[in-house]
Every structure is written in structure tokens, then in C-alpha cells.
């Protein structure tokens, strides 16, 4: 379980002036659950992800992993404890095969069952294990290899920043199925930052972030219901807000 307790983040802007990026963020992330963080651009989602990863040190509050205070730890230490970030795509070193990436991700001391990992992300091991990761890989294939490498690391917390970016519709469908299956089998806490309704549908809980704060932690049913209301009940679609469960212009 990962807990953020009253976390604040102040950074210097280009002119060296302090800017408050996050304020009083309190959030409990349970294992085996998918949290989708969403909200307006510039609201602070990626900053929360970076604070979780240890890329930014919080300037206020505490972060606990399974009860241990990790607030002062940097990115390497947190990675060692099992907090990982999914990059846009896995590294493409010349000659590196899918099996090498999975072995590298698992680390030198761990046996890794690459076939099972690839199966779990919907790829046939026979076709992929010895394939070199090069330009012939589609965005969706790369994304799934990346998720398999996250599984190989057996992370406690995995953060994905807009995993849908650059993925075609067909691969996107597969990607959502992959996420759906993941938390049935693995204990990993998954945090996905996304603006996509179809990703929202994967959430056990939706975390709404705006203006550097968490405005609500809620169910996908509530958010999806609000989106539907915006679509159906309001004539002035672009200027609608939800008040007391009703769309108002
Ligand atoms: N290193 C930094 N220095 C100063 N300001 C920053 C820094 N990083 C982020 N910010 C500011 O913090 C605010 C939150 O940014 P953040 O990237 O966390 O938002 P976001 O919700 O992820 O946005 P988006 O949906 O557009 O990706 C923005 O106003 C951004 O300009």
C-alpha cells in the first residue's frame, strides 16, 4: 500500500520564483487496484506521479510504502523497493531481443518465465521472444513488451503516464484488455494517468486532480455518468457543468 499524506510540492519556475505545484495531496493506493488519475491539463497529475517515483522530493508531507517512510528516498532507492514508471517505449539497443529486455528488467538474481509474461500481455512467445526490438515493432507491440517488463520487475507500484499515446485503435483495445487482466493475477498497484474514457473504464477508483489538489477520489460510474449527462442533457455542450448530479448550462 502506498500512502501520500498531506504532500506538497513547490518548485522554482524559469525566473527562480517559487511556484506551488501540489498542495495537501492525501491519497491511499491499495495493492491489486487500478487508479486512473485524470483532470484538466496542468492540474498536477504528472507532478504527483513524479513525487511517487522520487523524481521530485515533496516539500511537505510524507510518503509511506507498506508503512515505511520513503519520503526522503530518491528514484533509485524507490525503484529498488518496487516503485516503477513505464516509459513511452522500451529501449531499443541494437541486437537486443525481447527475451533480453525481460531478463534485464527482472534483474540478475531472478529467474524469469518470459513465455508466461508475454502470454499475460497477449503476445505469443514463439513469435516474439527472439525478435529484435527495432522499428518493425508497432506502438501497441512495444507497449505490451514494456508492460511485460514491468511485470518481470514484480513491482509494488507501477505508474503509467498516458499509455494510450501513439497507439492505434486496434492496439488500444488490446492494451485495455491487458490492463484488465493484470490486476487479476498480479499484486501490483497500477496508477494510470489518462484523459481517455476507455482507460477510465478500467479504474477501480478515479482520482480527479485539478489546480494542484485532489478534488475528488470517486468511482468510474460517477465520472462516466457525468460524461453521459454532459453528452445527452445539455444543449450548450461545451459550457456544461454538473451541479447536484444534473447538467447545467
Ligand atoms: N519543473 C517545473 N517547474 C515549474 N513548474 C512546473 C514544473 N513542472 C510542472 N510545472 C507546472 O506544474 C503544473 C502541473 O503540471 P503537471 O505536468 O503535473 O500537470 P498535468 O496535470 O500532468 O498536465 P497534463 O494533463 O497537461 O499532462 C503546471 O502548471 C506546470 O506548468
Known CATH architecture of the largest domain: 3-Layer(aba) Sandwich
Side by side, the strands of the main sheet go: 6-7-8-3-9-10
The CATH class designation of the largest domain is: Alpha Beta
Ligands in the model, by name, code or SMILES, are: adenosine-5'-triphosphate
Q: What radius of gyration results from the CA coordinates? A: 19 Å
Please report the total strand number as a whole number.
Answer: 12
Please, how many domains? 2
How is the biggest beta sheet arranged?
6 strands, mixed
Q: Averaged pLDDT, please?
A: 84
Strand proportion, as a percent range, falls in 25-35%
Instruction: Classify the secondary structure makeup into a structural class.
Output: alpha/beta
Low-confidence stretches: none
The rounded distance between the terminal residues' Cα atoms is 41 Å
The CATH homologous superfamily name of the largest domain equals: P-loop containing nucleotide triphosphate hydrolases
Helix content: 25-40%
- Compressed to H and E, one letter per element, the order equals EEEHEEHEHHHHEHEHEEHEE
Report the principal-axis shape. Answer: globular
The helix tally amounts to 9
Q: What is the CATH topology classification name of the largest domain?
A: Rossmann fold
Detailed description of the structure:
This protein has 249 residues and is α/β, with parallel strands linked by helices. It folds into 2 domains: 2-90 and 154-218, Rossmann fold; 219-249. Helix content is 34%, strand content 27%. The protein is built from 9 helices and 12 strands. It has helices at 45-53, 75-81, 98-106, 114-120, 125-128, 139-153, 169-185, 197-200, 220-232, and strands at 2-12, 18-29, 34-38, 60-65, 68-69, 83-86, 157-161, 189-193, 205-210, 213-218, 241-243, 246-248. The N and C termini lie far apart (41 Å). The mean pLDDT is 84. The structure holds adenosine-5'-triphosphate (ATP). The site of adenosine-5'-triphosphate has 11 residues, from strand 2 and helix 1.
Amino acid at each position: 500500500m502506498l500512502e501520500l499524506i498531506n504532500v506538497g510540492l513547490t518548485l522554482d519556475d524559469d525566473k527562480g520564483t517559487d511556484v506551488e505545484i501540489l498542495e495537501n495531496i492525501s491519497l491511499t493506493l491499495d495493492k491489486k487496484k487500478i487508479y486512473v488519475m485524470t483532470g484538466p491539463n496542468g492540474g498536477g497529475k504528472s507532478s504527483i506521479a513524479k513525487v511517487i517515483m522520487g523524481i521530485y522530493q515533496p516539500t511537505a508531507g510524507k510518503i509511506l510504502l507498506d508503512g515505511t517512510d520513503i519520503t526522503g528516498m530518491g528514484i533509485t532507492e524507490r525503484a529498488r523497493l518496487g516503485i516503477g514508471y513505464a516509459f513511452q517505449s522500451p529501449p531499443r539497443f541494437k541486437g537486443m531481443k525481447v527475451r533480453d529486455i525481460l531478463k534485464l528488467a527482472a534483474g540478475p538474481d531472478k529467474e524469469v518465465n518470459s513465455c508466461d509474461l508475454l502470454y499475460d500481455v497477449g503476445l505469443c512467445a514463439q513469435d516474439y521472444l527472439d525478435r529484435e526490438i527495432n522499428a518493425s515493432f508497432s506502438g501497441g507491440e512495444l507497449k505490451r513488451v514494456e508492460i511485460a517488463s514491468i511485470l518481470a520487475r514484480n513491482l509494488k507500484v507501477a505508474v503509467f503516464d498516458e499509455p494510450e499515446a501513439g497507439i492505434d485503435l486496434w492496439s488500444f483495445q488490446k492494451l485495455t484488455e491487458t490492463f484488465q487482466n493484470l490486476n487479476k493475477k498480479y499484486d501490483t498497484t497500477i496508477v494510470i494517468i489518462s484523459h481517455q474514457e476507455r482507460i477510465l473504464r478500467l479504474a477501480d477508483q478515479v482520482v480527479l486532480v485539478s489546480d494542484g489538489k485532489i478534488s475528488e477520489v470517486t468511482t468510474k460510474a460517477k465520472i462516466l455518468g457525468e460524461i453521459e449527462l454532459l453528452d445527452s442533457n445539455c444543449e450548450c455542450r461545451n459550457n456544461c457543468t454538473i451541479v447536484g448530479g444534473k447538467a447545467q448550462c
